[in-house]
TrEMBL record, chains A, B:
The active site is at 488 (proton donor). InterPro entries: 6-hairpin_glycosidase_sf, 6hp_glycosidase-like_sf, Gal_mutarotase_sf_dom, GH65_N, Glyco_hydro_65_C, Glyco_hydro_65_M, Glyco_hydro_65_N, Malt_Pase/Glycosyl_Hdrlase. PANTHER family: GLYCOSYL HYDROLASE-RELATED, MALTOSE PHOSPHORYLASE. Coiled coil: none annotated. This is Maltose phosphorylase.
Length: 774, 774
């Protein structure tokens, strides 16, 4: 855990340069616009430790699998969102001496991620080896208004000398991914152009043959006036630059404006790319930096108006939640159903930028409640379009007859991951994909989704579970052996309660969905039956038998559900028994030690109780929470949010608050000591969920939205807005008073603290905060 | 399964050239002398599919670990016996046309591995692309008399043309390992010399800095007379050759004799290497091919005289067992305690030529009974010398206070393997290492070994088990979670019966050993106590508690020991339920499917019953055999032998014979479809063990050797010899009559079919074969 960032309501601020933290800051200060994004690498060259990162949404490379010991069924490739050209690079030198912070004494270093207006600002004074001192102020952003465009302003002032200055803005596709399996570079040059003040490179990815063009145009001001300059044009493999030599007077500021664009073959024909890029760059150049920045600020203002969560009285918590919301909107806008949400977004390479079950289990509710309904729907359709690949994926593992196993990690629907205990065994992911369909319909009421897309997915998943269980004669029950549950600190266990339970639920929900579509859309139902060769009675007969007779481990003495067979045979320590030097255990213990310990990485039984809260009474939830939470080390970023929600449900307000802070400031405080790899983007949605479902107590059951807000005594007030079926609602809690405000022109019946309340059009209902018993 | 080799009592014979089987034959026809060895690659160039393989004992390279997902505790390197220079290479061309069987029509191709005399012979007639036909006869061997020397005779005759012939014998260290993790070459050149008819290259391994010098000298005969020739000397990086141009008449045979030597820095100072190599080559050259071959035949004759197993009436079985014995003696002679037995010996790269538990569990009894006592002792001392590394290895996994975990795979005592479920969890290997000490003392009576070396190893191992178990309060017993038993088709299971049982036994045996050394060698005991900071009462108090209260899963209803927790919850199919296309399952099923299936790769519970036969009554063994054997797919080469021995014990003579054939001809018939990677050397010792302990019923208990031989009706007779405590005994079974012959000048009391018998000096006892009830 590190706490080197300043607390501020609207900005992330780093003061002072700590080279050892540079990779962490590069992650945290990342900027993006859903279409592309980049880590906070410096504009000028930097020979110190850095992880260059520039990513283009949907542009990936199937890197050949690297594995010690091959197992049948492993994928041949791991699809990775690959590093692209930096659009922001500008090399600076004075009289032959390069500006490179690794070679300077750095003073007054400050980085600010201005979340309110959506830009990154960096200022510093550097004393170079020669003794010369220069002051720099660099501001940049990726436009969310014009999502192909980015711009920067780079102000540089020699403080105590005059000398020639060389300014070299460039575009460079000769980049590598640090996690490339075989130290390969993934781009090949297609075309490039360079003129006096602009340059373009089009490059193509190997194998996948995506093309991208990154271009730039720049202007320079000195003494407040635009400079006319000559430039040497530099061309190298996959690289263009313009090199400008100017004189530079002591105390006079040189300002470089660099305008850039990124366009890809995902959106344009390949042969048009460079022209499209030029047009975008030209548009940005014409618009000008200040004007682009103004519209950026306005656009972010609008987003905040809708999506902000305001907390009074706790700057750290306020900053944390805004950082999460900001990064989520920088990562995924939901406009393009081909895209999804990588665990690190545009902030790092790790996990390859691919899609995990995180999307359905953690990100889905955020987009459902804060964005247009089409955004969540696009996330579902993304999986529908991968159904055939999921069936092929299951076939590789010996399944037949249309059984579908969605991949653990994917870009294009094919499995990318290659650890047998995850790839082949962490199959509960299939359940989350079904659950998201259920969640979508529950939230939106759009039952029709079943007939259009949902049913086929649900049947494919149900078929998988029906084949994956076995009947244990000895026990007279169906069982599921050899799985990894959500708690990845257990591998290859038998009868993981969560997996068995969600399998049972999937079978039942699929049968409901079949019933619904068959009754309400008989023709469509017929079509599906034929398309997927579905033998309704035979198949659902089997499903019913399984759902009714699947083994769900529980312990009557403790009154809890049992994580998996044998779990209670362990040494039942709690996290308090761990020594500080043991934590995080995944950085200190060998894998076998982690596995045989009782410690839980992330919610497992509790994940199930969170999903299926309405299936269990509060006492059951409480006993399980009290048993499992103290044994949970939360070394997955996805863990705390579930504990906030259940903690809140049980009235464990302090526990909920503690967990909430941990998830909200996970990256800002580098809790898990891994933010250098990138930010935990998908868990940020979990943070939002923790807030709204935890503190806000928001639920949707029986077509009715419910709230049961409470407030921690550390806060004076908080407020958030949600969308619900065409309504736009605001929840405000101040002191011990709750207000629900309807920002819509129609009334709505809601549940508040368990009571039915009429919320008038554009009106408000109020109530005193009800605290549950802790 | 393939059956393309001819059945013959003394030779392995391939007739006809099948390029697709070339790698298999290259493995099977390998030759070696314990110091070096090589696959049966052709002398002349071959552009078809081939796995070049030339290995020098003890010369390895730590190849950087390749792994998809790193886990704490993984080794950074995998130590591999690396490919070295071929000593046998000779390129041949006629008038510019290279002789290359991949480019020829091959007739009358025949390979013969003459096991009786220890040489490899290859003959063929090749029709070259130009239409020219040549006949070749190539014979070679690695001398077991002079273990640095090898020699070959290459006879080549143009059948229907006269032309110039170019002959180019070479030494070439510019080789690569096919399984190199990063496509790296491991040798760098140190020195080389080439003269008119000889050449030498000294090369050094990267990182480990071993040096090896391979040298050659050759002569040529035509028309039965030695030819005087000039040679172009060719030098390239790590390569020397002599290129000789001669005329060659239709029907006239050109004979090349190439004499070679391999010497390494394991045995000489580096700076002496080339001189030592020259001296060895000179000696060989002077001795001449025929003379060297004669002494080779005599030496092999002597080995066979001692170690042969003779079977009358079953050529396939006879050939199988001789092939096993032959390969074992080619691999390990036991003269050098720094060496050990790699799973593939000198026949392939796979498994890196490293040491596995195979040595203790399967190879040990073979060397114990057929070689000088010092050989088995050297195998134990090898592990003693690795004790410190085993302690460090355990420390990496969180163990303390001198607990020792021997590596799964090792060359120098450090762990090489990198699969968590094996490296960290297949810990039963520690038990086998303790068991070998017990086995050695039981067999030889040399109790003193404990005080010299054994005790420290036993205490280190006992300390490991004492820390590895945990106390399950709920069950009031010690348990061991997260292990992989000998059956590697189960990973990360809880309470593997075999592992728990051998852990218990190790604790008890360590306590016995302590008692013995403390009483009989009090000073030495004191010294050990101080050296390893052993707190006898505290530690053994704990050990006693564990040994007395460790959970050993069993099922009263079935009357069996249970392989591990949950095993009986599986779908309890038997191998008969498998479809032919499913087998071998490890080549057809994904790993999760294998894991959750009931099918057993190799003896697990039965391995324990084999080791501790005297702890269980026959009914228990029978019930377990009848339960587990039908569920065993024997996809480890180490599996059938244990089933032969137990099957024989239970009177399942047919089952024992079936299993025996499978192990004896495993490579000859390519049972597991993997002989192309190399022969299963360590399992060959298991075959011997299967014969002697299975058919021969040999045991040693209470300082007495026991026999209970039976014979399958497929054989007329068999005979084998064993050494036992200075005695030299022969067991002969013909028809229904058993003879035990004492080839020693002193009488011995033995047990025959459970009865005490006096075996006179140089005398015989006889008995009718007793068949156990099947």
């Amino acid at each position: 855990m590190k706490e080197y960032l300043k607390h501020d309501e609207w900005s992330i601020i780093e003061e002072g340069f700590i080279p050892e933290y540079n990779r962490i800051s590069e992650s945290i200060f990342s900027i993006g616009n859903g279409r592309f994004g980049q880590r906070a690498n410096f504009e000028e060259q930097y020979s110190g430790d850095t992880l260059p990162g520039n990513y283009l949404a949907g542009i990936y490379y199937p890197d050949k699998t690297k594995v010690g010991w091959w197992k049948i069924g492993y994928p041949e490739y791991f699809a990775k969102v690959l590093n692209a050209s930096s659009w922001a690079g500008i090399n600076i030198d004075f009289d032959g001496e390069a500006l490179d912070l690794a070679e300077c004494k750095v003073e007054d270093f400050r980085r600010e991620l201005n979340m309110k207006e959506g830009f990154l600002l960096r200022t510093f004074t550097a004393k170079m080896k020669s003794g010369r001192r220069v002051k720099v102020e660099a501001k940049r952003f990726c436009s969310i208004v014009r999502d192909e465009i980015a711009a920067l302003e780079y102000r540089i002032t020699p403080l105590d000398f005059s000398s020639p200055i060389n300014i070299t803005p460039y575009v460079d596709f000769d980049v590598e991914n640090e996690d490339s399996n075989y130290d390969e570079k993934f781009w090949v040059e297609v075309d490039k152009k360079v003129k006096r003040r602009q340059g373009y490179v089009t490059a193509e990815t190997k194998k996948t043959a995506f093309q991208a063009c990154t271009g730039m145009k720049f202007s320079i001001e000195q003494g407040g006036k635009e400079v006319d300059f000559d430039a040497y044009r530099i061309e190298k493999e996959k690289y263009v630059a313009c090199s400008v030599d100017l004189a530079c007077k002591e105390g006079e500021t040189t300002v470089i404006y660099k305008y850039a664009a990124n366009v890809t073959s995902l959106n344009y024909k390949k042969k048009e790319l460079m022209d499209r890029c030029k047009a975008a760059v030209k548009e940005a150049y014409k618009e000008g930096f200040q004007s682009l920045l103004r519209e950026q600020a306005i656009a972010w203002g609008n987003k905040w108006e809708e999506a902000d969560i305001r907390i009074e009285g706790d700057v750290a918590a306020q900053q944390g939640i805004r950082f999460n919301i900001f990064q989520l909107y920088q990562t995924y806008t939901g406009e393009d159903e081909r895209l999804n949400i990588g665990p690190k977004g545009f902030t790092g390479e790790k996990y390859g930028g691919s899609t995990y079950w995180d999307t359905e289990a953690y990100c889905f509710p955020f987009y459902l409640a804060t964005a247009d309904q089409s955004v969540a729907r696009n996330l579902l359709v993304y999986r529908y379009k991968h159904l055939q690949k999921a069936i092929e994926n299951a076939e590789k593992l010996g399944f037949t007859d249309g059984a579908a196993l969605y991949p653990m990690v994917t870009m294009n629907g094919e499995e990318s991951h290659n650890e047998w205990e995850i790839t082949f065994e962490e199959i509960h992911r299939n359940g989350a994909i079904a659950y998201a369909i259920y969640d979508y319909i529950r939230y939106t009421g759009e039952q029709e989704y079943l007939s259009e897309y949902g049913l086929e997915v649900l049947i494919g998943i149900a078929r998988f579970w029906a084949q994956r269980v076995h009947f244990s004669k000895r026990n007279g029950q169906y069982m599921m052996h050899g799985v990894t549950g959500p708690n990845e600190y257990e591998n290859n266990v038998n009868n993981n309660w969560y997996t068995n339970y969600i399998a049972k639920w999937c079978l039942e929900y699929a049968m409901e969905a079949i019933e619904y579509v068959a009754q309400n859309h008989p023709e469509r139902y017929q079509e599906i039956e034929e398309k997927i060769k579905f033998y309704r009675n035979t198949e659902t007969g089997k499903w019913k038998d399984i759902a009714g007779n699947i083994y769900l481990p529980k312990d009557d003495e403790l009154g809890i559900l049992v994580q998996h067979d044998g779990f209670l045979d362990k040494e039942l320590l709690t996290v308090d028994d761990l020594k500080p030097e043991d934590r995080p255990i995944n950085q200190n213990w060998s894998w076998d030690r982690i596995l045989r310990s009782v410690f839980i990485k992330q919610a497992d039984v509790l994940q199930g109780l969170y999903f299926f809260e309405d299936h269990f009474d509060t006492d059951t939830i409480r006993r399980n929470f009290d048993f499992y939470e103290p044994r949970t080390v939360h070394e997955s970023s996805l863990s705390p949010c579930v504990h906030v929600i259940l903690g809140a449900l049980l009235g464990r307000e302090e526990k909920a608050y503690e967990m909430y802070l941990r998830t909200a400031r996970l990256d800002l405080d580098d809790y898990n000591n891994d933010t250098e790899d990138g930010c935990h983007i998908t868990s940020m949605a979990g943070t939002w969920m923790a807030f709204v479902k935890g503190f806000g107590g928001m639920r949707v059951f029986n077509d009715t939205v419910q709230f049961s807000p409470f407030i921690t005594k550390n806060w004076q007030s908080y407020a958030f807005k949600v969308r619900f079926r065409g309504y736009y609602l605001e929840v405000k809690v101040a002191g011990e008073q709750t207000q629900i405000i309807n920002h819509t022109n129609k009334p709505l019946e809601i549940m508040l603290y368990g009571e039915r309340r009429e919320l008038p059009a554009n009106g408000t209902v109020e109530a005193a905060v009800v605290h549950r018993q802790g």
